[in-house]
Input
Amino acid sequence: KCFDGISKIQEQDEHDYIAKVEKRSGRLDYLGKEYQSFDFLLEQLGSVYVLCVDVRFINHYQNRNINNFDNFFSLIYQQIQLIGNIFKFLPNFIHANTKFEHDFYLGVNLHCILIFKHSPKFDEQDLVEQLQYLFDLNFRNQFYIKVRNWNEAVRKNFSNKAVGHIGKANREKIEQFKYW
Output
């Protein structure tokens, strides 16, 4: 019986390992496609502007139990189409990659990598303020929202070349963006 139990544990470990490898492989495939899409944009446009923002949805009336978080997240997730439309409303907007995460307090963070056609007059702060206004306008009765410029954090903690203006001839910036 002891060896039968060990055999079952080994089978489960093998199954878990295979599932992890498949999941990792799926993520790598996804990243490869995103990199190709980015390279295609650079080839077509010559340069782009990358702006990372953090959109924090806060529910001040929520306590910290998991059921309340799930309900709150569900309310936000139901608005994903509207969130996408807000991004599309921004001048020179091309593409967004987004990821939801628990903020480990009273809300949800929506991390966004926004890609725009490059313009010499691109103003990050102005765009963040515009996003704040649009989110407030569309969600003022549902959530408190705080939009932050995450490019500042990337520049400070990783690389000042990974975000901002990226041209197709600047391989170092392209690699820093992809690596980050």
